[in-house]
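Could you join me in thinking about how sequence relates to backbone shape in a protein? We need material for that, and I hope you will provide a protein of your own picking. Label the sequence line and the structure token line clearly, so we can match residues to local backbone shapes. Would you write everything just below, so we can both look at the same thing?
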Amino acid sequence: MWWRREDEPHTLPINERTRATHPSQPGQIELVDIPILSLTTQRAMVDRVQASRAEIVRLRSEAETVRRAARAEVEALILGPAPAGAA
């Protein structure tokens, strides 16, 4: 089986005669040591990625707000104050 439940070992069985990392003959794929993280670890990684993506969205929004404020400030410095009654 290529998947494991949380209560099973976290690596596939290894044939101790050969610790191939790149099987050279058909049928040797079963000899490759493939580590499988626990379900708890996998979930923690997913949570961290989702939190990072949310932080990216927040920071992009903040950067856009700062960019707009800086643009408005520069325009005001170049153009001078807006005439009274102008919207």
Summary: The chain is about 45% helix and 0% strand. Residues 1-36 form one domain.
